[in-house]
Design goal:
It holds the Pfam family THF_DHG_CYH_C. This protein is of the alpha/beta class. The protein is built from ten helices and eleven strands. It binds NADPH dihydro-nicotinamide-adenine-dinucleotide phosphate. The site of NADPH dihydro-nicotinamide-adenine-dinucleotide phosphate (NDP) has 26 residues, from helix 10.
Length: 280
Amino acid sequence: MYKLIDGKVISKQIKDELKEKVAGLKAEGVEICLAVIQVGNDPASSVYVGNKKKACEYIGIGSLSYELPEETTEEELLALIEKLNSDDKVNGILVQLPLPKHIDEDKVIKTISPKKDVDGFHPMSVGALSIGQPGFVSCTPAGVIQLIKRSGIEIEGKECVVLGRSNIVGKPMSMLLLRENGTVTVCHSRTRNLKEVCRRADILVVAIGKPEMIDASYIKEGATVIDVGIHRDENNKLCGDVDFESAKEVAGAITPVPGGVGPMTIAMLMSNCVESININ
Ligand code: NDP
């Protein structure tokens, strides 16, 4: 019988803890403010930005919203970021990705001050994570660690397999599991004997962007399975990279999609905003 790892419950727990912390900070006269920038009006981005603003409101974090037109130039966007970098009232800067094609995302990410990089994408933040120094951690992998720990699952000494090596999920995920003293293997599209490697895992984190590819045959009996993937199937229903119905027959604990990793990303963004007062 598997345990369902409920991201809705755990993310609510985290948001409530943050809300209390923020109220305490306010009582001491400390206000936290996140600047959210969206360029263009991609509908999915608008939903994400709206959810981030709602979360700020719930926790008591102030938010500044910049909705810029699609034809905004790279120079204009970089100038706004520079302005926010030097604004003492702004603790965190979030630029919603993806950006329109004429804007260089890497340049934008590098322009955000590492002290305000609440998405954790700046090379300085990534470097700090890899050498164990304080800095912002990418929200989705940070959320995965919280899901595992708050479900009472120990990471130390465990065989952890991360499926995917992207800069925003797979790589930081592997660094975080290593920081928690897991024994970490990272797999990607050139990995040989993928099934065998996955079947070694006590903790399997799947972030490959392939709908329902990982079924029970990739999973060791009793393993913890964390599904980072998000897709819509042919009936417009959300699904992950893991075939949940098959995987739950062998997994010891597993996240659903939706309601697993998804809600954690915003909770950890909020956590990074609160944490920013220690990084500034
Ligand atoms: P990317 O496409 O950037 O990376 C996918 C990774 O998986 C790559 O490293 C790739 O290998 C590897 N891969 C692809 N196919 C295979 C395969 N058949 N076998 C082994 N490895 C494979 O994806 P992201 O990391 O950005 O996202 C992964 C998933 O997570 C997506 O479904 C995305 O929507 C979701 N996501 C969810 C978030 C959330 O908040 N829940 C946040 C971010 C992402 P290689 O490097 O060799 O090409």
